[in-house]
Structure formats: structure tokens, C-alpha cells
Amino acid sequence: MAKKERQAPEISAGAMADIAFLLLIFFLVTTQFPAEEGIPMVLPAKKDPNQEQVQKEINDRNLFKILVNRNDELLVEDEIMDLANLKDAVKRHITNNGRDPKLSDSPQKAVVSIKVDRGTSYDMYIKVLDRVKQAYHEARAEALGITVEQYLAIKEDKLPPDMKQKYQQVKERIPMMISIADPNKKK
Amino acid sequence: MQGHFKKKTKAKQDIPTAALPDIIFMLLFFFMVTTQLKPEQVLVEQELPHASQIQSIDDPTVVSYVYIGPPINKAAYGSEPRVQVNDVLLEPSAIAPLLLEEQAALPLEKRAKMIVSLKIDKDVKMGVVSDVTNTLRDNELRMVLFNAVKASASEQ
Lengths: 187, 156
What we know:
The complex is a heterodimer.
Chain A: H1 16-30, E1 37-42, E2 63-68, E3 74-76, E4 79-80, H2 83-94, E5 111-116, H3 122-144, H4 148-152, H5 161-173, E6 178-181
Helix pairs in contact in A: 2-3
Chain B: H1 20-34, E1 50-51, E2 55-56, E3 63-69, H2 74-77, E4 82-85, E5 88-90, H3 96-105, E6 115-120, H4 126-138, E7 143-147, E8 149-150
Parallel strand pairs in B: 1-8, 3-6, 6-7
Antiparallel strand pairs in B: 3-4, 4-5
């Protein structure tokens, strides 16, 4: 039998690109840059035991009290309220500008206080905080003449100078003063 | 007669594709290296609450994580919500040293900007949450982010 002439086997590299593409597309699709999204808050400053606690007197009309009990029920300004009405009530309070004698003098003086119980669920707390923030964001967005979505998407560093100035002015005019009471403290 | 306009010599217009796999591989390696499938093992259940007023953090390098929720492994850790930092479950009062260590590892100019991202299961009670936030406050880690998922319009 005559020996057949062996040809050097050649791997066709044509499909290689396809394979690489497939892998590439897989990683493209599955890659998730960890997104950090949520409700930002700044916690109150630490109590200094050496310093006399300065009791800042807040006029009762400027203080908007929200209480949540262990059954996730809302008590707003000493009245039972539904969560759905909370946002409008908070907004009315901060944008009152002295009209209603029971509500705030001005946005600068308005304070929203949230007090929860140790047994309140975190879900409820976030819902309440979300509504309060929504009220503030709507008030600020209206002052800027944009929608809430546009307001939320603002990145302060990337704003053009004139808009940035307006943004900071509005933030100053409608400061977000949300006080979160410590549920451990007994009154 | 018809053949008067002779077809020009066929110049092959093929783009050489030999280098294509190399380019693709380079892209592939880039994505493989930058992909983070899971930063760390989360030992507690994480069903984040929904909210509408969601804002994102500009600089992800200054973020540290605290997870709170009922342990996934209930046989070993019980069913009460626990607090996780890095890879360990801790008492709320014991999380400060680990977070302060992370803060110390940041470049000087970023230390004051450190944000603690709180990933808290929606069924956790506020007692644990307030213990954690009090610990953070006492250690001057005052910027926090309550992690939440964007709520759909129908939930509003």
C-alpha cells in the first residue's frame, strides 16, 4: 500500500473571530458595574457630653411631626394619616410661607421630624423618608422650573455655571431639614 | 462589440480579517478583567425596599458597605436580623473598627467624603437600623445611603 501523502492539518482560523465575539457579547451582557442607588442622608452630629446641649427652640408651627408606630401606622401632626397623603401634606408645610397659621413660616424655618419605633419596619421607614424627600424635591424642582426626574438626575459638578448657581440658591432657599429622632430615647 | 468595455482586472477589495480575532480578544480581556461578578459574599437576605426619590453616587471608590438582614444560613446564625461588614456577621456596636479601617485606607482627600452604603432588607425592624446609624454617627461616619430600588410608577 502506497503511503498517502500526509498534508499538514490546518486549523481554519476563520471561526475564531466568531467564538471571540460570542464570548465578548456574553461578558458585555453580563457585566454590571455595581450601581449605588438609594436615598442619601447625612446623620446628625455626635452629641458632645462635655458641651451643654443647646436646645434649639423650634416654633411649633415650623415643626412637622411624623410618628410611625410599631404597626407601621402613621401619625402626622397628631392626626392619623394615610401614606398616600403624606407627600402633599409635607409639601404644603414647607411651601406654606406663613399663609396657614398652623404650618411653617418659611421654607428656611420648616423642619420635618420623623420619629419611629424600634419595631417599625425598615420598609415603612424608607417609604416615609421617600415621601418627605419627594415633597422637598418637588418644591425645589418647581423653583428651578424642571421636573422631579430632571432634578434627581442633576450632578452638581457637571452643571453649567449659571445653572449651578441657581441650583445652589434653590438649595439654600429650600433647605432639607429632616430630623430623625432616635427611637431608643424615651421622651 | 459588447465586450468593448472590458471589465477591469478584479482587484480584491477584501478587508484583511486576520487581525480581527486579536482585536476582539483584546476587548474580551478588557471586559473579563473589569467585570466584577460579586464583590463579596453576602450572608444575609437582601430584599431592598422600593423608593421613588433615588439618587446615585458619583464616586464609587468612597463607598463602604453594611448589609443588614436575616441570615441566609438560618441553622448556623438564627433568624434574627444580623449586620454584615466585609465577610463577617457582627453586633451593631462592633462595626465601627472595620469601617474606620476602610476609611483610613482611602486617600486623604477622600476620607471626609466616605459614604456608608446601607443595604438593608425591607423586613428588618428599625431597632437594629438605628443601632447601626447611632454607631456610625458616634464614629463620625455621617454620610449614609439607604440603598433602595427604583419603584415603578404603579407603586406610587
